[in-house]
Please model this.
Amino acid sequence: MVNKVTLIGRVGKDPEVRRLENGIAVAKFSVATNENYKDKSGEWQTTTEWHDIVVWRLLAERAEQQLKKGKLVYVDGKLTHRKWQAEDGSNRYSTEVVANTFRLLEKREDGGGGYSSSFPGTESAPQAKEFEKTSATKPAAAENTAPADKGGAAEDDLPF
Model:
């Protein structure tokens, strides 16, 4: 069975962070996603859905530091449902996404160019910058040092 939610949308409000008695951080924020479609008359319409997001521990602390209202964010997690009793005794229900990860998709504000984070799997921007530096210089060096095969031509620069 699978319970997986993936969202790309805008943060609706700055995260509300609180600490439990044992010191564990929990943050809540909302994300708005849009769907565009043409109605019967051919006019474009936009429908906005609001999603309540919950993050725990270190992810909650990261959300507090990085997420601000209006930022474009990628969220990956699972759908959960809660039931509780309100002060008047009536039953209340909520549906939330408990996020396993999130990534900002906005450009950096420090003017450094590029993106502050990317999709899961690429954790650090310095590695990407180092790759850009080395990949720009490696081809020229590889051409000068490539061994010749039996036919006298340079071998392909393949790892196998």
